[in-house]
Amino acid sequence: MPPVRLDTTTKDGLTQQVKQIASQKAALVLLDFSQVEFVDSSGLGAMVAALKSLRSVGGELALCQPSDQVKTLLEITGLERIIKIYPNRQVFDQEYGK
Length: 98
Hints:
Transcription Regulator spoIIAA; two-stranded parallel sheet; 4 helices; 45% helix; globular
């Protein structure tokens, strides 16, 4: 689970984990943001880096249950158009047949 804050002090952990997953050629990585209350520009950069890492091996990045602050930030930056967002894990599981 990501940290409660995704910012300059925590972004490297996310980036490293996703790079490791991407090296295994994951088709899709779902980040559970239910506990993430704050994302700054460094956190946005980490999400973009994660997306690029995954796409370089044919994968995709998705988020579930982001806070209102995070959703607003994704909308303002346009990232909600390139990162699939699910309201919760159940909706994600229904879409992927789990």
